[in-house]
UniProtKB/TrEMBL annotation:
Signal peptide: none annotated. It comes from Shewanella corallii. The lineage of its organism: Bacteria, Pseudomonadati, Pseudomonadota, Gammaproteobacteria, Alteromonadales. This is 5-formyltetrahydrofolate cyclo-ligase. Its EC number is 6.3.3.2. Keywords: ATP-binding, Ligase, Magnesium, Metal-binding, Nucleotide-binding. It catalyses: (6S)-5-formyl-5,6,7,8-tetrahydrofolate + ATP = (6R)-5,10-methenyltetrahydrofolate + ADP + phosphate. Pfam families: 5-FTHF_cyc-lig. Its cofactor is Mg(2+). Belongs to the 5-formyltetrahydrofolate cyclo-ligase family. The keyword Repressor does not apply.
Amino acid sequence: METRAELRRRIRQQRSKLTAAQQTEATQQLVDLLLPELLKRQVQHIALYLSNDGELNTLPLIQALWQHNILVALPVLHPFSPGHLLFLHYHPDSPMTTNRYGIAEPRLDISQLVPLHKLDLILTPLVAFDKQGNRLGMGGGFYDRTLACSNAPAAMGIAHECQKVSALPVESWDIPLPEIATPDALYQFSTPNLHL
């Protein structure tokens, strides 16, 4: 089996080979698949992320959620607790900054904080996933730590179909996802998750 580092490298290379047209089509397919599902579930407060490194573009989904008056929160690197995330309300006029990984995030403003227990769902990025719902991230453990919190809401991964692998090497700290959305399907897994 490939190591986690090898898998990350291979899947990120695959993802980077998608053309602009393929990315645009995949993004629209994801919105068409996911938005009706989120509305059906009556999600009112959702955490998302801004795409980076060839990830599916989340901006059209965010804009669609805004049109339905759904509060969107984005992750921010916790300033005092390394390796942890905060979630801040994100709206069209949010002042933004760039974190140490080169990813845009809302400027820290405690009045915009959305506590974990107020979120209905966290949509997480990932590098790869398998048929058991295991998720391979970028290696920082930010989402695993967040999802391990007792007050964390349900989570769903977002990925291109090319990010699916048959099996991932799993570590004790990895938190599997009960659902992963791709432009082609909404995969549901029978993963043990205390927050569902």
